[in-house]
Amino acid sequence: MPEPAAAPAGIDPRSGFCAATRIFHSLRSSSAGSLPPESLPVTAAAYAFSLLASALPGRPALVDAATGIAVSYPSFIASVRSLAGGLWSSLGLRPGDVAFVVAPSRLKVPVLHFALMSIGAVVSPANPASTPEEYAHQVALSRPVVAFAAPEVAEKLPASVSCVVLGSDAYETLASVGAGAAPPPVVVKQSDTAAVLYSSGTTGRVKAVAITHRNLTALMCTHAENRKRVAAEATEAGEEPPPPAVTLLPLPLFHVFGFMMVLRSVSMGDTAVLMERFEFGAVLRAIERYRVTLLPAAPPVLVAMIKSEEARRHDLSSLLVIAVGGAPLGREVAERFAAVFPSVQIVQGYGLTESSGSVAATIGPEESMAYGSVGKLASHLQGKIVVPATGEALGPGQRGELWIRGPLVMKGYVGDDKATAETVDSDGWLKTGDLCYFNEDGFLYIVDRLKELIKYKGYQVPPAELEHTLQSHPGIADAAVIGYPDEDAGQLPMAFIVRQPGFNLTGQQVMDYVAKHVAPYKKVRRVAFVNAIPKSPAERSCGGSLCSRPCPWVPPSFEL
């Protein structure tokens, strides 16, 4: 995708808005030449390693939270190179080959991700909790030549894909063979695809998002520039710069948030503590045991910490920052959290899979006080606020759909040129589907989601996919799914159901049916039965102003 041209004169230094072009520019200063030339062949893995100091960090690169097993930086890099050799010489993987990776967050997974990217192969991580039919859809999109799967997942994958079980003799042999057979130098363009991540896109079923090596190098540059800024501000204030981060990742590595946080941690020489699944008590114990300084989390985690007596029984004094993403953080929750944990800084961020996980973030204590905002545009990015119906670009304080442009924007949706063209225009503007505005100081605020995805504990749940599943049930005449507000989860998928005549379905039967066909986080958790699903804007209490798809806002009659 085209990258933005140099910023023209006439930009308001306070908001970043240019009245002549109607474009908002990043207020983050970026050092000249911080991004490598686009013509330079380099993989994201090689670029990450190039950012490390010549003397590798003495701290661990990875730690398993459950076992305490640690992997040093020299061991991590050696493991990546050995495995890369085996992938090349034994499996015959070549640049552009897609590898489907389906496993919980274990120590082998980041090694595999980096090894694949280092030879130009494409990493395509998927949820180990998905169903066989969901895997079949993802495989049809990304067309992998091989799959790497945890033992408990392998049998659910399509038989058409050759599978290597992680931890098996066959897998371990790859690394041992590769130790004496390093792959030859590969020429990989930055514009080549590095990863295919799965996203619900702006609407409908799961889409395969192609993320390039250029996207990932730009992301690493953004994080490096942010750290330099924080260190410089600390020095100016006569304070010590923050220490290298110990980041707890109770995040799935198949999700853009977890995938990118590992990349960030390695490129910055930090330590990433991996957890297979989120469990609140285990998170508290891990913070205490490993002296965690940075915790990425969705807003429900902050709510739990505020309410929990257990949190007060653990030594959380090492925790310096919580990086909030996955869903908007309300002002009330932020203020309540600050009152209970005054020494922990909240960093609010916003991104999409289609933007390599980054669009905006707050940096430093002062910006973190801008409650309700997701921060300022990341360096190298431009933004527009657009009236969806007319395409008119708006100024500060005015609400419209956020469009962004820059080196973080995806290559496109794999196998779906129509969806790509609808989402990214010919000038490289990515239409986020989110209703937003910038204030006079360049802070971005998310007002609502035009794309109507349900955010359950930070996961994206597409209503259209659940409606498709519900409507396949013989006892359901019609269905609509919305997000039901919930303080702990953010939103709960709630289904409004019209029964077929002669069927007396219960809510539990509806929920059980959906649970058989989708991953656990997508399950319907509330059911209401109605006589009809309103279809037109006039039939909805919102007057059609909130969304365009059928939804039962205050249906004529219902039973829970």
What does this structure look like?
Belongs to the ATP-dependent AMP-binding enzyme family. It is an enzyme of class 6 (ligase). Its EC number is 6.2.1.12. This protein has 560 residues and is α/β, with parallel strands linked by helices. It has three domains: 17-39 and 214-408 and 419-449, Rossmann fold (3-Layer(aba) Sandwich); 44-211, 3-Layer(aba) Sandwich (Rossmann fold), CATH 3.40.50; 454-559, ANL, C-terminal domain (GMP Synthetase, Chain A, domain 3), CATH 3.30.300. The protein is globular. The model is unreliable at 535-560 (pLDDT under 50).
Category by helix and strand content = alpha/beta
Q: What does the radius of gyration come to?
A: 23 Å
Instruction: Please report the first level of CATH classification, the CATH class of the largest domain.
Output: Alpha Beta
Instruction: Report mean pLDDT, rounded to a whole number.
Output: 88
Low-confidence stretches: 535-560
Tally of structural domains: 3
Helix content: 25-40%
What secondary-structure arrangement, pairings included, does this model have?
Blueprint: E1 17-18, E2 23-25, H1 44-50, E3 60-64, E4 70-72, H2 73-89, E5 98-102, H3 108-118, E6 122-126, H4 132-142, E7 146-149, E8 163-165, H5 169-178, E9 193-199, E10 207-212, H6 213-236, E11 246-249, H7 256-267, E12 271-274, H8 280-290, E13 294-297, H9 299-307, E14 321-324, H10 331-340, E15 345-350, E16 360-361, H11 364-368, E17 376-377, E18 382-386, E19 393-394, E20 400-405, E21 412-413, H12 417-423, E22 430-438, E23 444-449, E24 454-456, E25 459-461, H13 463-471, E26 476-486, E27 490-499, H14 507-515, E28 526-530, E29 558-559
Parallel strand pairs: 3-12, 5-6, 5-7, 7-8, 11-12, 13-14, 14-15, 27-28
Antiparallel strand pairs: 1-2, 2-18, 3-4, 9-10, 10-21, 15-16, 16-17, 18-19, 18-20, 20-22, 22-23, 24-25, 26-27, 28-29
Helix pairs in contact: 1-7, 2-3, 2-5, 6-7, 9-10
